[in-house]
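User: I'm preparing a small set of examples for a lab meeting where we compare how different chains pack in three dimensions. I only have the primary sequence for this one, and I'd like the structure in token form so I can line it up with the others. Please keep the answer compact; I'll paste it straight into my notes.
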Amino acid sequence: MKRITLLCIFCIVCIGCVGSKPIPNWTYSGFNNLEGFKTNYLTGQEKIAEMYFQKATEEIKKSGKLKLLAMAYLTRYAIEVAVLEEFNDSHYLRIDAADSDPQNRSYYLLLKGKTARLNETDIPKQYRSLLKAIQMGNEAAWADETNKINDPVSKLIAIGIITRYYAADEAVLNIAIETASRNGWKKALLVYLEKLRLLYEAKGIHEKARKIQQQIQLINH
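Assistant: Understood. Below is the structure token output for the 221-residue chain.
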């Protein structure tokens, strides 16, 4: 989700703070710690990211809002998908069993690559056009639809979904590389450089694969 959208949900949908009522401190703390988790995870600072995530969930639990807690875990899963990692969904499933939210459930299914029966109106707006292209099997449109997503985190999440569950082509992988590079997300950058290297190797384009391998080595040392 976009930064401003998530903050609005924290402050309005799940908190009920309206009019002149002051916004509780936990809302800002929970939101800011989730932002810290995302940035640090994408750059490769996993231990620091974990500290931020634990602080975020501790703050959210103060409210007892299970929808928000589920969103926090879905945020974590989305970032893990963005760097092509498996995620342990046990925490979300426990929350969903206790208090299921249809929109959270749809986002979870999107992150799991279970898109066949998803309704576009039930997932975050930024992914809807891409979902249509996926459901239609229109692979030629995947890069264009991904490029239309303005928020860089959401863009990388979309590419993660494509790459993990379908088949990202050179254009899609280059969008991920450019997005990660521009934002200084080293971990994500290396992940997608390696995917592109493997793609070139599979296609027998060995010179391009060799150059990417050199780039990876230089970034790592």
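A couple of notes for your slides: Residues 61 and 69 are 7 Å apart (CA to CA). The longest helix spans residues 25-43.

User: Perfect, thanks.
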